[in-house]
Design brief:
This protein is an alpha+beta fold and about 325 residues long. The protein has three helices and 17 strands.
């Protein structure tokens, strides 16, 4: 076999290889000195994250995006806009008797905090509130649910009129039972106190009574109409509620057989409020008065049981 000399391309000088290795080692040390070395454990997650990130990004881009929900509190905020006058007065309370909290131009918009009757409690700034009348502004939404009411089961009836029509049974001196019809008009001075005036009618039929058993004398049966009126004061025991028991007393007069007999009455009953404007009412009442000729006056204790309906306005 013929020995061939190695070609120039395959020849490597030992000195050149050593110099190249030294340069590579020196460059690695300089790079390590300029940057903080990373441990193999810390490098592994970075590599894994770099490998997985494109896949996650692609899946997020491919999945349908849910609409971004607004803050639920901001969606529930109701507002009003001043649109009646160029200068609108805002007060410190729900009424013209309160001091002026500010004057604002037409077109101003304020968030509404609460509602009391025809007045809106509005937020003027982050630390100030005021009240504006409903006639000076326009609602963006229905604000009836913002009505300021400490207890929805309680109602303030002060200053309210109540008209009642009723019917029932009337016992004249506990001996004659007849139907009675009447009506009353009352006024709530306070939640507990009510003054009312009433008028009623009944037809009395009294049986004959024996006055002298020795001679067999007797009185004829009596049949006459009686109209009576009275003025009463009613005190409610549980005011402001749906079912209200009460006590009542007053004075008046009874017109019968051409005479007028003054007397007084007292009683008790219950009012069931079906709504803010309507109610049912049942009661027991006793009427006390004297009647008869001057030389033979007798005391009468008449009892009345009634059921009626009432309208508040």
């Amino acid at each position: 076999m013929t020995n061939q000399a190695p070609s120039p391309a395959r020849r490597r000088h030992p000195g050149a290889a050593a110099v190249a290795l030294a340069i590579a080692v020196l460059g690695a040390r300089l790079a390590a000195a300029q940057s903080t070395p990373a441990s193999p454990d810390s490098m592994a997650p970075a590599v894994a994250e770099s490998a997985v990130t494109p896949v996650i990004a692609d899946s997020i881009a491919a999945a349908p995006q849910a609409p971004v929900q607004a803050n639920p509190r901001s969606a529930a905020i109701r507002k009003v806009r001043l649109d009646r006058h160029s200068h609108n007065v805002v007060r410190s309370g729900p009424g013209n008797q309160y001091s002026i909290a500010g004057v604002y131009p037409e077109g101003s918009v304020f968030p509404v905090i609460a509602k009391s009757g025809d007045w809106y409690d509005i937020r003027l700034s982050a630390s100030e509130t005021g009240w504006i009348h409903a006639s000076l502004c326009k609602e963006f939404d229905d604000l009836s649910d913002l009505e300021l009411r400490p207890n929805p089961r309680l109602f303030n009836r002060t200053g309210t009129y109540i008209l009642t029509g009723y019917g029932g049974a009337y016992a004249y001196d506990r001996k004659s039972n007849s139907a009675v019809y009447g009506g009353r008009l009352g006024y709530y001075v306070f939640d507990r106190l009510q003054f009312e005036g009433g008028v009623a009618w009944t037809h009395v039929r009294r049986p004959a009574e024996i006055v002298e058993s020795l001679f067999g004398l007797s009185l004829e049966a009596e049949s006459f109409d009686m109209l009576f009126y009275n003025m009463n004061a009613t005190w409610e025991l549980l005011p402001g509620r749906q079912m209200v028991p009460y006590l009542s007393a007053g004075a008046g007069s009874s017109l019968m057989q051409g005479t007028s007999e003054p007397g007084f009455n007292f009683g008790a009953g219950t009012t069931l409020f079906l709504s803010k404007r309507s109610a049912m009412r049942w009661e027991f009442r006793s009427y006390r008065f004297r009647s008869g000729p001057a030389d033979a006056r007798v005391s009468n204790n008449n009892v009345e049981f009634t059921l009626g309906t009432s309208l508040l306005f």
